[in-house]
Design goal:
alpha+beta; D-Maltodextrin-Binding Protein, domain 2; seven-stranded mixed β-sheet; six-stranded mixed β-sheet; 21 strands; 26% strand
Amino acid sequence: MSRKDAKEIWKLVIVSVASFSLLGASVHLIIPKELISQVIPEKTVSPVLQTDSLKIGILTSSKNYQTLIEYLQEQLGNQLEITLEGDGNLSYQAAKNKIIQNQWDIVFTLSPMLSVAAKDNGYSFAARMFPDFEPYYESALFVRNDSFIQSLADLKPTTTIALGDFNSASSFYMPVYDLYGKTLRVKAGNRSSQIREMVKTGKVDVGASSFDLVKDNPAFRVIHVSRKIPGSGVYLSPKLSNSDQTTLKKVLLDAPAIIKQQANYDVGQEPDYTMFVGISRRAEEVLSCADFSQNPINFFCPSSNPQNLTAFNDTTITGKVNGFSYVDNDTLHLKLSGKDGNLYRVVVARKILNQVKNAPPPPGLINKTLQVIGVQPVEVNSRLELKVEQANQLQVL
């Protein structure tokens, strides 16, 4: 082939390419932009997290979160390991321990008690749970529809009531607050479904539950409705970097509506827990002398007798809790009977207690064995006092 022929061929190629380019440009001008985006979606770049794994904690059925995990995997990349922990059988205390130890990167708290625990342990709010309901809800005391009990005034020392776990707002704290002054037989530590079944079958006279779960059930009759209770939320672990928290919050809130509905969360403001924390403290004061291993239980405190104190020199004290009281809004006194025969007053902030593994709220500490580590007893007003200033100075045995 001559050099002249080669030049002619290259001219034809260049003209052809140019023609096709102009044709493509004209086609682009004719087809609407939104139509093209439907045919060829715009490529997005997956957010990059600093962490290489995410652990999600839940307290309901895991099937409600499978589509969320698939969505997160798609958005954050397959190289990220995502695991789900918990289900409808996980106790509040077990979930609280996970939060205290920062074992969950994303936690769907379900209960305002766990939301407060998350806040106390440095977790940050990301989204609201139960977005289809009001931000605040109520607890209810209810009976079987054919019960003779009409109101709180009909509750007697022979009446048996089913309460929930010590960490439950609607089935424990609010009912206890409203039962002040009563003496009742109590069966505590039940899940909501168990409480409803116990009332339905006549195993107990009264049950405590979320108002929404019993208000429309013809088998039950509500005898009392509590004050407003703040809702729960989705919280992110303080172990995550600030940038990872920002990315995760955005990805969670940008999820399709059907995914957020299944996982029971959506955008919303964090509830104000201030009043609820105050009510829970009042309830704990009511129960400061209660022994849940014996019935009937007084929902009030009789006068206590002064106790004789003796000297003590050891810095590791083990004993059993036999009572508690509040000094102010944030400080708690635990009455501790030491194994050495001495009596102590443990001074601890409620926030610190909320950071101690296996530590239930104060009513649940009654008859529990505690170990106070590295705290020197000091005599204050004829009492031996142990001031706990760090969570690792207190253990629940």
